[in-house]
Design brief:
Largest interface: A-B, 56 and 93 residues
Number of domains of chain B: 1
Structural class of chain B: mainly beta
CATH superfamily of chain B: OMPT-like
Oligomer: heterodimer
CATH architecture of chain B: Beta Barrel
Distance between the termini of chain B: 34 Å
Number of helices of chain A: 8
Strand order of the largest sheet of chain B: 1-3-4-5-6-7-8-9-10-11
Shape of chain B: elongated
Number of strands of chain B: 11
Radius of gyration of chain A: 23 Å
Structural class of chain A: alpha/beta
């Protein structure tokens, strides 16, 4: 191909090409802004994408009025979505509001199909739950549930099957269920908490092991709606609170659940529980939340950037598909613009 | 000669700087298929023209480092005119044209920087080469353009994006590199990106381009090339 470019044009182009990265270099070279954060985040973690499926059910359609509409499940779901996306580098987040049984199953199917081996998958459910006293079977209640007809519910066994399938493909799987009787899903598991002196080793260790964890709003009791008019349930209120106020770059589910359980139990008549999904391949690993928008005293927010010591960009890093910076929307690669 | 040395120094230093950086860094390869129409006016009576067939295939490669990106795009395709076609110009003459096929090739060398979270400004060195099948007459248009590009996430899988830019003053030369006129152009692209996998995306959208060419013969030629496109990009992390 033969093009008629003058040497002047090429000269200007060279100057511009040389100058653009220099601007980027100038920004990155302000080490004083980056150092405090980078020193904290050095543990080599797993390389997977952070994905989430978030379900919030308010508008129950039960004709007999058995399943009354909830006030806060949708706003709980939205708040969790926003927090995970903006502060924890979740790059693939699907939200279903007022999900029917079919919606939930389709969403599980879609999620399981795209999960890759190193991925971190979080499923959050806010809505009615139910436990059959005769059988001790627990259920999620979709918005199209019909009375006490449990064939229109989502049984724990179904949820367990779906999670087990996802867990078989992902590195870390976490279910957070904010509903009545959701504790029937889990088996208590005991994990350690890191020693401050050796926390990097701890995070490295638990990150390398497979995990299939559950945190629930309550064991086998009724749970509350709209805590202190916050537009959130007490469980999600304290969950959001812990995640928002977390000032550490890495937070395991065990660390998170310990604080949430204490906060909820100290304030309402409800005891959240956490544990593992039995039979789904848990190897005592940990789901790790990575805080992407840490606040560093004295450093402008747009100069703080969390860097996790993992290989970048191949769809493998928390936020690699959607690289997130402090309070900024995701960074997407779009086709090169041409004139 | 001095300019060439400076250019080489600039490019080498850029490459070295890029190489030493250790951040969000990737190379993206893309292919794009455009179904396009070329229509315009030769500036005379009953001189409007419309292509009856047209399309182009584009290949692109880009390098991204944090907020900076640079890339190249090569695009080629043919436009068929049944009836009036874009006229051919030399420094002193104008030759009418009809019932021809014009092969159009384009090259873009560009660099941009995200000055805002989702909006970048870029500079594009563009060259367009048109070759008439009837006479092998060839015309080149080249210039430096400036533009803005931005995107808006729609959900986890879809992202909307757009770009707009212009070349304020480009040069038109014939195949002997003799100047035959000046021209300007503008472009607008609007599309959507669908992420199929963590490192591969489909994109689709529309692209509008307008050219105004002013020849030394005091003739003007206005035309637009509008296209629907679909493309695929694959990212390689570095």
């Amino acid at each position: 191909m033969k093009y008629a470019f003058s040497s002047n044009v090429l000269f200007v182009a060279a100057i511009i090409l040389a100058g653009m990265p220099a601007m980027a270099a100038t920004e990155n070279s302000r080490g004083i802004a980056l150092q405090p954060v980078e020193q904290k985040v050095v543990a080599p973690l797993n390389k997977g994408v952070y994905r989430a499926l978030i379900i919030g059910n308010n508008d129950y359609q039960s004709e007999d009025g058995l399943w009354k509409p909830l006030k806060t499940a949708v706003s709980d779901a939205r708040a969790v979505q926003k927090l995970l996306e903006n502060s924890y580098g979740f790059s693939d987040v699907s939200v279903i509001e007022n999900a029917t049984r079919r919606d939930v199953l389709k969403a599980f199917e879609a999620l399981s199909q795209k999960v890759l081996p190193d991925d971190n998958v979080l499923v959050y459910y806010a809505g009615h739950g139910f436990m059959e006293s005769e059988t001790n079977r627990g259920y999620w209640i979709p918005v199209d549930a019909e009375g006490r007809d449990n064939t229109t519910f989502l049984g724990n066994s179904t949820i367990r099957d779906e999670l087990t399938l996802i867990a078989s493909r992902a590195k870390h799987t976490l279910l957070i269920s904010d509903s009545c009787f959701s504790g029937t899903l889990l088996r208590r598991g005991v994990r350690g908490i890191p020693d401050a002196a050796d926390s990097e080793q701890y995070y490295k260790k638990v990150s390398s092991k497979k995990s299939v964890q559950i945190m629930t709003a309550g064991g086998v009791e009724f749970v509350d709606d709209n805590y202190q008019s916050s537009n959130h349930s007490p469980f999600t209120y304290f969950l959001l609170n812990e995640l928002k106020n977390n000032d550490r770059p890495m937070l395991t589910l065990s660390e998170l659940s310990t604080n949430v359980e204490k906060a909820v139990a100290n304030n309402v008549d409800q005891v959240p529980e956490s544990g593992v999904l039995h039979g789904a391949g848990d190897e005592l690993g940990e789901f790790i939340f990575i805080k992407m928008d840490l606040v560093v005293d004295g450093v402008p927010a747009d100069r703080v950037k969390v860097q996790v010591n993992v290989k970048q960009g191949d769809g493998s890093q928390p936020g690699s598909r959607v690289v997130r910076e402090k309070s900024g929307p995701r960074k997407e690669v779009i086709p090169v613009p041409t004139l | 000669m001095c300019h060439k040395k400076l250019m080489m120094c600039g490019l080498v230093s850029t490459a070295l700087w890029m190489h030493t950086a250790a951040a969000d860094e990737r190379i993206t390869l893309g292919v794009k298929l455009l179904g396009a129409g070329w229509s315009g006016d030769n500036g005379g009576v009953s001189s409007s023209f419309n292509s009856t067939e047209g399309g182009q295939l584009a290949f692109s490669a880009s390098y991204t480092l944090e907020k900076f990106y640079a890339g190249i795009s090569l695009q080629s395709g043919n436009y068929k005119f049944d009836g009036t076609a874009p006229d051919q110009f030399t420094p002193s003459t104008r030759v009418s044209s009809s019932n021809v096929e014009i092969e159009q090739r384009e090259m873009d060398l560009l660099a941009g920087y995200y000055f805002w979270d989702t909006v970048s400004l870029f500079v594009d060195i563009k060259g367009v080469s048109n070759t008439w099948s009837s006479s092998s007459y060839k015309q080149n248009f080249g210039g430096i353009g400036f533009g803005a590009s931005g995107y808006m996430p729609i959900n986890a899988d879809w992202t909307g994006y757009g770009s707009v830019g212009f070349i304020g003053r480009g040069e038109i030369k014939d195949e002997d590199k003799v100047k035959v006129g000046d021209g300007s152009s503008g472009a607008l692209e609007i599309g959507a990106v669908y992420r199929m996998a963590p490192n591969s995306t489909l994109n689709m959208g529309v692209k509008f381009r307008n050219y105004r060419l002013e020849y030394l013969t005091n003739s003007t030629q206005d035309y637009s090339i509008n296209a629907l496109f679909v493309g695929y990009n694959h990212e390689f992390a570095l």
